[in-house]
Amino acid sequence: MATSEFTRFLRARQHLHDYAAMVAYDIAGAAAPVTAESLREMIQRFGLVVPELVDPTQTAWSSDPNHYLRVGITMVAMQPANPLTPANPVCKTENGCAYKGFVAWSFGNYTRNCSDATSGIGIAYSGLPNTRDNLPSGAFQQNAIVVVDVQVTYKPLFASGFNLNAFGNTQVNLLPSSDLTTFAWQPVRNWRGTGVSSYPGLATTSAGVWTASSCTGVT
Questions:
Q1: pLDDT at 63
Q2: Is the peptide bond before 200 cis (omega within 30 degrees of 0)?
Q3: Are 155 and 55 in contact (CB under 8 A)?
Q4: Which of 2, 144, 206, 216 could tie 188 with a disulfide, CB 3.0–4.6 Å?
Q5: Phi, psi (5° rounding) for residue 138?
Q6: φ and ψ at 74, to 5 degrees?
Q7: 3-state secondary structure of 47
Q8: Is the alpha carbon torsion for 192, 197, 200, 203 positive or negative?
Q9: Which of 142, 177, 184 is nearest to 160 (CA)?
Q10: Using CB atoms within 10 A of its CB, is residue 202 exposed (0-12), middle (13-18) or buried (19+)?
């Protein structure tokens, strides 16, 4: 039973990351404007990709940020941190230029907050793991990026653990309920300008139980 539980846990963790990566890849390459409805459909793929983490005792989809399943889809705009000049019209590391990321909008029940207007999103170094307030250094590049954050409560198959009283011990939980968290990001491949009517803008702000928050001043 222990082997079965541990295998299930590892499989669920891998499938969770596969799901985040798949959603990020599909949105980043979308040829049509992004709508809240299309994002809702992306979120609802969860039950197909990670069936072992679906909790049949709870509402399938919820806007509650404390729900057992939390998904956030975020568009991050990239802007040069240093002013461009006629001699260096493109931001490149070799000419001393770097990019800063700013949250343009975020959709779901696990959204990222709007970035600080000056500093933008923080960089996650080896000593600072990724959170919803930063991104790995590799994400800071020319194109806007799509970030998918997922957190789900994992419940072991043997939820009550193993009762070892017969051996003179108290009850032991093999794997207690815990949160699995992952994220994935992809650079936007079909840039269509800015604004709410074209990608990567968000055409509508809500679909079903999910809503989006847009950040003012980010293009």
A1: 92
A2: yes
A3: yes
A4: 144
A5: -65, -15
A6: -130, 135
A7: helix
A8: negative
A9: 177
A10: buried
- Write down the pLDDT at residue 22: 96
pLDDT above 70 covers what percent of the chain?
Answer: 79
Closest CA to 71 of 148, 184, 177: 148
* Distances in whole angstroms, Cα of residue 191 to Cα of each of 116, 143, 152, 188, 202: 24, 8, 31, 6, 13
Shortest CA distance to 16 belongs to which of 66, 58, 68, 63?
Answer: 68
Q: Order the strands of the 99-108 sheet from edge to edge.
A: 178-187, 145-154, 69-80, 99-108, 210-214, 206-207
Q: How far apart are CA 123 and CA 37, in angstroms?
A: 31
The token pair at 111 is 């959204």
80 strand-pairing partners: 99
What pLDDT digit, counting tens, does each position of 82-112 carry?
Answer: 776 676 667 776 666 788 889 999 999 999 9
Q: What is the CA radius of gyration of the chain?
A: 20
* Residues shown for the chain: 219
Measure the CA–CA gap between 109 and 63, rounded to whole angstroms: 5
Report d(CA 162, CA 56) in Å as an integer.
23
37 burial type by CB count under 10 A (0-12 exposed, 13-18 middle, 19+ buried): middle
144, two tokens? 């806007």
Q: Retrieve residue 154's tokens.
A: 């994992």
Q: What is d(CA 64, CA 83) in angstroms, rounded to the nearest whole number? A: 41
